[in-house]
# Entry
Amino acid sequence: MRCNEVHELIVAGSLTALAQEHLDACPQCQSFARDEESLRAGFELLAKNEVPEPSWGFAARVLRGLDEAPARMFEPLEIIGRRAVLAAGALAMTVMMALALALSSSGPPREGRQGAFSLTRGESAETVEILLAGGVDENEEINLMPVSVNGGDSR
Amino acid sequence: MEYSAGRDAQELEWIRDAQRGNRDAFGALVERHQRRVFAVIFRVTGDRDQVEDLSQEVFLKAYRAVRSYNQSASFGTWLSRIAVNHCYDYLRSRRSTRNRVESFDGSPEDLESPAKSFPASGPDPERAALLRDMVSKLLARATEDDRVVVALKELNGMSVEEIAEILELKVGTVKVRLHRARKRMLEDFRKMQGGGAHAV
# Structure
């Protein structure tokens, strides 16, 4: 009998007479068997660790948790919803910008208006509305940079 | 788990009420099965600090799914299945957040544990503690599949049939998994001893 076969039987815990005979004569398999015994003993020791008891009022806390659960369940939908709204807003802004550019370039030339502003994606909707309304003095400087947390330039 | 007829009838009533949305009935089911869920989670994860939180999450999942419970298995088995699946998720996330636990490669101070001389339940508490620690680390190093099946059998004392029902596997498949898991862990155990007698 080969050592590997004996090892299988040792792990299975079902030594045959033939395997026992091999084991009695093979120091390597004896070492394997000792380790297997130690591992089993280790499992037994670990199994003696006491399972923690539920703390007082555990069931009541579970029931209270049920009230919070629906909110958590719909959280992913809310995130998707918020993203959809933002995406729709960005799309609407892009369409409006495209329309504005198309109309301004296809209409009669207006002095001083064409190319006055170059808009990029990400600019605020408020800025776009102002630009489309044409209610901005061309000489007035428009700050398209985001306002810094500390109040911006202290000059 | 065997119930008396009265206990069965009472539990069935709670289950039906819980399926209609009766929270008090579900609370009674929690009271009845909380220790079982705690035991499964503690044995599989080995994480004492997380047992209560994980158990609470298991019962929340169970409440959401209770309408789908069709009595093909006992309620306790059904809950254990949810608990084991939750443990899988937890173990995977824990593994992803830290390296594969304490590697014994190149850490000789962890290797000084001549298991050959470990008495199975001998009088030396220091050695027993060391062996317990080694086996605990072995479980932590094992794959989730190996860990679950070994923990349920060796630590939680479940029968192969119970484990098969929880994992929705054939009894033969569980036996094979258990055997392979034990063998892998034994090989790892021998490596942890710094070579002991390597498998031939």
